[in-house]
Design goal:
- This protein is mainly alpha-helical and 194 residues long.
- The chain has one domain: Orthogonal Bundle (MetI-like fold).
- It is built from ten helices and no strands.
- Helix 1 packs parallel to helix 4 and helix 5 runs antiparallel to helix 6.
- The protein is globular and about 70 Å long.
- The C terminus is likely disordered.
Length: 194
């Protein structure tokens, strides 16, 4: 989630605010990348990771999860950045702030509700991801939670244990949602009084 935000916040800001050649094409390509189903990429990822020796390693999983979530975060954040009033940033530039300081001191604080929503969504995608973990991890000591719960699905283990594992898997998502809820509520009600 953190790696995804580190890459997607500057990328989404650049696509939403900066003017450059190919900006519209880049914005559309983000949506196209987001629309490619993971099952189409599964075989090339498996072959590439096998050739590079990244299969059955947590480092490989840490590399591939941001790759799958960055397009989603870029698409969501660029829409939010476009909705922010440009006049606020222009005022910061006129007051002598550099573009980077405008982003850090003005845009990011105004974007906390969007970043909270995107963080939760990206975390849910990575947390619930099963296909890549099933395909790339063979060692039970390196299994992700979803892969480990799926391993419980056998005739020797009662269904109650499988269901208990599935319920426990939802606890971190609920905790993060409760922690970020105040930011999301602020974002929903911001500007409603004006």
């Amino acid at each position: 989630m953190i790696v995804t935000l580190l890459f997607s916040v500057p990328g989404a800001y650049a696509v939403a605010r900066l003017r450059f050649r190919g900006q519209a094409a880049m914005s559309r390509s983000i949506l196209l990348i987001y629309m490619v189903p993971m099952i189409v990429l599964a075989l090339p990822i498996y072959i590439g990771f096998s050739m590079l020796g990244l299969r059955n390693s947590l480092f490989g999983i840490l590399l591939i999860y941001p790759v799958t979530t960055i397009p989603v975060a870029l698409y969501m954040l660029q829409g939010y950045f476009r909705g922010l009033p440009a006049e606020v940033e222009e005022a910061g530039l006129m007051d002598g702030l550099s573009r980077l300081k405008v982003i850090l001191k003005i845009t990011l604080p105004l974007s906390l509700p969007a970043m909270a929503s995107v963080s939760l969504y990206v975390f849910m995608i990575a947390w619930n991801e099963f296909l890549l973990a099933f395909m790339l991890l063979d060692d039970p000591s390196k299994f992700t939670l979803t892969r480990g719960v799926a391993m419980l699905n056998s005739s020797e283990i009662p269904r109650q244990h499988l269901m208990a594992g599935a319920v426990i898997a939802t606890v971190p998502i609920m905790m993060i949602f409760l922690g970020l809820e105040r930011f999301m509520v602020k974002g929903l009600t911001a500007g409603s009084v004006k």
